[in-house]
UniProtKB/TrEMBL annotation:
Superkingdom of the organism of origin: Bacteria
UniProt function note: GTPase that associates with the 50S ribosomal subunit and may have a role during protein synthesis or ribosome biogenesis.
Tagged with keyword Transferase: no
InterPro entries named in the record: G_HFLX_dom, GTP-bd, GTP-bd_M, GTPase_HflX, GTPase_HflX_N, GTPase_HflX_N_sf, P-loop_NTPase
Phylogenetic lineage: Bacteria, Pseudomonadati, Pseudomonadota, Alphaproteobacteria, Rhodobacterales
Name listed for the protein in its UniProt record: GTPase HflX
HAMAP family in the cross-refs: GTPase_HflX
Keywords attached to this entry: Cytoplasm, GTP-binding, Magnesium, Metal-binding, Nucleotide-binding
Similarity comment text for this entry: Belongs to the TRAFAC class OBG-HflX-like GTPase superfamily. HflX GTPase family.
Compartments, record wording: Cytoplasm
The species this protein was found in: Roseinatronobacter alkalisoli
Amino acid sequence: MSRTPVDVSDLGGEGGTRPTRAYVLHPDIRSVDRGRLPEHALAEAQALAHALPGLEVVGAEVVRLPKAHPGLLFGTGKVDELGTRIGDLDVDLVLIDGPVSPVQQRNLERAWDVKLLDRTGLILEIFADRARTREGVLQVDLAALSYQRTRLVRAWTHLERQRGGLGFVGGPGETQIEADRRAIDEQMVRLRRQLSKVAKTRDLHRAARKKVPFPVVALVGYTNAGKSTLFNRLTGADVLAQDMLFATLDPTMRAVTLPTGKQVILSDTVGFISDLPTQLVAAFRATLEEVLEADLIVHVRDIAHSETESQAQNVRSILAELGVRDETPLIELWNKADLLDEEGAESVSRRAERAEGVFLASSVTGQGLDAFFDAATMVLDDVRHHETFTLGFGQGRARAWLFEQGIVESESQTDEGFVLQVFWTDRQKRNFRDLRAKESGS
């Protein structure tokens, strides 16, 4: 079974010698309130299409509908009108920005004589193209199979046949669609087992990181907000950072020293997006578990985007859905300040100054990042972590100070001194280090 729900590689003529010609449609259904302008939704759908290699978008339009037609999505007149336009443009693939039922997909493909992908299918294609790690590939496979399972009624005439068989193959009278569905279910069980093993390995890595007394900073945000550009600026890593939706798919983590001298583990995560397919929300929940373990979440926003507020709300909703704790510190970095005109920059700057925990900056030019780093360091200085060390018998004042702070979890005695396990902040650690140095020097 192919890894992606629809193979678009063979749509571009003989031998794939030309790009796949795609036409993008955004159904603006009057009875469905999506809380955003349809023109903006269409622009995002086009950006999604450009994110898939080998596609050439030759046209796009918003199609206004009073309601969705159960069999064709659009009315018959509109289907004919669009069919003429699709034929004139020699389109290979139609991308519909929204959900399309299996019956609607089959009927529209027959009517227009093209392949068709809905929003879920397109995002799955992009994720399948971008996944690099073992876990990412397995998660895409699982999501794609879940998607395929619901679409077994697509134009396959053999699915209507019945077949006999021995009991261990599939009982007498089993339809081909039932056999195909069972095969998909079995493959999904195998993938879940493999993912479980990968998850255990990831848990071991996370446990090992916890022994390193560095706080974890997770970069989150709407796709294409500039997280990877900021990540690269701080780490010197060569993470894919392009003006493209879903440029980053697999989570990347690096140990990094902030300009303030603070050592942290920085995590770059997959970008969020509105109307993320249900299959992918479930499949990539594990990928985003690093956010749940973070000591600081940095919400990177594209402040120059026309829909920055709705994008930010979408990110907040997904964080809440993931179960991020309310007490986890969060800083908003209003990125791409370099793309604002003078008047817009002044207005946004005033808003950022009035808000708590908000910083206007540019990951490209470095503008405003120093204030952000200072604030992040201040927050992380109050993050507590476990540490174990030995104090000599002659360092009674330092030992007493630890108990006064209420940070000693356990203590035992050896021939060399007192072995203490503490749970403290970096600020307390620095103060203890200074006290210990004074005691040793006195």
